[in-house]
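Reply to dn_fold:

You asked what the input looked like. This is it:
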Amino acid sequence: MGLIGDAWANGTPVLATKEHYDLKAGWNCLIVRSPLEFSEAVMGLQGDRDLWNQLSTGGLQTAKAHHSLELTAETLFEELKEVVNL
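and this is what came back:
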């Protein structure tokens, strides 16, 4: 699943330098552009239970919708079938 997926699956908020792939600012991650913003975000999350819960919930939903073991296995199996022409 990867480190981001692991964080989401465990309810841990994700900090990223930009939106990409399934990272959506304010939904399942916070965007930080410098070391100072990173440290401020970490400190802010410690004191803002609502923001923590919002990012945690968004991450869990993203992980379940797009990164579950079952979905990943199904996608890989379909791609394997294409490669070997099944």
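The CA atoms of residues 64 and 70 lie 10 Å apart.
Hope that clears it up.
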